[in-house]
Amino acid sequence: MTSQHSNTVAILATNGFEQVELTSPREALEAAGIATRIVSDQDDAIQGMHHAEKGDRFPVDQLLGEADASNYDAIVIPGGLFSPDALRTNEQALSFVRDFFDQKKVVSAICHGPQVLISADVVEDRDMTAVPAVQVDLRNAGAIVYDQEMVCDQGLVTSRVPGDLATFNAKLVEEIEEGRHKAQQQSVA
Fold first, then answer.
1. How far apart are CA 48 and CA 136, in angstroms?
2. Residue 164 to residues 49, 122, 159: CA-CA distances in angstroms?
3. pLDDT tens digit sequence for 78-120
4. Residue 1 forms part of a structural domain
5. Residue 175: inside a domain
6. What is the C-alpha to C-alpha distance for residues 91 and 76, in angstroms, rounded to an integer?
7. CATH number, domain with residue 58
8. What is the pLDDT of residue 181?
9. Cα separations (Å) of 58 from 22, 80, 139, 179, 181?
């Protein structure tokens, strides 16, 4: 008998996210058979960016105010200059992120995405990385910061820049699949 539950990942973003930091993880997750849903404070579509240039618009799957971490297996927080900055001052976004930590689920963030984790007050004593400009903020918030392409600390996966996406995506998929395997082992017992 197979479980009715399949893995689903929330991608938390708003206008001004770095487009490849949403599309690349989403493609890797979906290639591994893991569903993704864009969760945002905007109810229609959100604007991607290629650094300072506008990219594509992406439809929002679920409004942040209606999202519940218990319905997801993991969360991805793409970077970019504007999306993390807007989300880090949105109490609904911070509460949503904290719920993933409380439920011991996989949390991932890249580039400026860890700014949201800093504002959610969940980085103290965690091994992490981010884009160099955010590494200082992480240290000041109590994180143990490494300047390497990917750092994983008990299901918290962080990376620095788009060039790190291949390693970030592979570890993200691995962490989610490990969670699924653990759940299957527990259901057999």
1. 26
2. 18, 23, 6
3. 999 999 999 999 999 999 999 999 999 999 999 999 999 999 9
4. no
5. yes
6. 17
7. 3.40.50.880
8. 67
9. 10, 15, 33, 28, 31
Q: Is residue 137 part of a domain?
A: yes
Look at the block and give the residue holding tokens 């993390």. Answer: 84
The CA distance from 143 to 91, in Å, is 21
Residues whose CB is less than 8 angstroms from the CB of residue 30 and which lie 6 or more positions away in sequence, other chains included:
36
- What is the DSSP secondary-structure string of 23-85? HHHHHHHHHTT-EEEEEESSSSEEEEEETTEEEEEEE-SEEGGG--GGG-SEEEE---SSHHH
Residue 95 lies in a domain: yes
Count how many domains the chain has.
Answer: 1
- Cβ atoms of 37 and 61 within 8 Å: the answer is yes
Average pLDDT, the chain: 94
Q: How far is CA 53 from CA 16, 17, 18, 47, 113, in A?
A: 10, 11, 10, 11, 19
Give residue 37's domain range: 8-188
Taking 80 as the threshold, does the pLDDT of residue 152 lie above it?
yes
Q: What residues are labeled active site?
A: 111-112
pTM: 0.94
Given a cut of 90, whether residue 6 has pLDDT beyond it is no
